[in-house]
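hiii, so i know i said id send this last week but things got crazy w the move. better late than never?? heres the sequnce for the chain we talked about at the cafe, plus the structure i predicted for it. fair warning i was half asleep when i ran it
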Amino acid sequence: MILSRTMPSMDSLIAGPSSALNKILPASTARVLVNNGKGTRTRSINKPWADSSWPLIETPSRAQSVTHPALYIANEVAHAHNAMLRGLNALYLQAPFVRLPSDVADFLFLVRVWSAWVLDYHVLKETVMLPGFEAVLGLEGGFLPSGLASTPSSRGSIEINIDGSDEEGDSEKGRSKGKGKQHEPRDLSLLLHGLLNYADETLPQPPSYSAATLQALLASLARTLVPHLHGQIPALMNMRELCSSPSSPPSLSPRSSSSSGSSSSGSTSIPRSRLGDAEAAAAQRANLLTQTYLSAEASFTANMDRFTIPPMVVRLRDVTYADGSEGGGWPRLSVPALHAVADRLSAKHAGAWRFLPCDVWGKPRELQFVE
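okay and structure toks below
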């Protein structure tokens, strides 16, 4: 799921007046909000929080204005990926401290919902979104996935340890990180299915829960998932340049890279008479990218469980992250829709949402089970 505008239709669930959101805190404010009986205040954190052990992604909007559909898509996907990373971190950090059978059942339910969400997103990306982008840009099938795998993340080469820490540099393991990348989509699916199966099998028998087993599964998944999520963003941003290529007219079917290369041989100068056509073609590609992206979102929204995905996702966004734009712009829910999530959709599985790092308004809170 792309999760940038997956739930605007929930506005139709609301009837009656709505109240304004609490004021979004600036990025410099302490991360956790607590209620002292006299209203909400802030205090500092001494405990680990969901922005580690695995690093979040710097969204494109922090470094530049989002003025092109490719940048918009990359920015929205970065927000969704950060929500996934907060979920991964929250699960990993709290796993050792969940002990009571009722708590274990709620925790494993969250593991199941989170892993199924990430798996559904992954499948949609590989089968709908990326092939659609390739068709629009006239690229050979499989070009974007290979480009994603070879594009360094914003933090450089990230190597994940079993304890959830990350290392950057030229370790032997890091230098060989690119080997076998062509199998990354398949590996991700297998790892996510393994985590999902563990949650499904253990949920009916909470006493059989093993924190060590769950953490090992999460760490194994992170070794592939975290670099994948980070590396995808610069590749999506690069679609802006691919839109502007005058040698590849807009297409709804993949084109081979060889034909593109042959048409661009010779002088790189473009006759003035062709500039207008090239700009129009680039604009058409950009518009088709937007349509492809929104169509992929609609595909997920039509099939999502509204009692699990919206209540989880709104609590995985952080409105204080960066300049506060995440909470204001992603996942683009109106105040009435947020009230619908809080008042109508969250109660069914309320126990599971206790483990999430933010409240329904996207304001950070302590991870309740971290000791």
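btw The chain has 13 helices and four strands. thought thatd interest u
miss u guys!!
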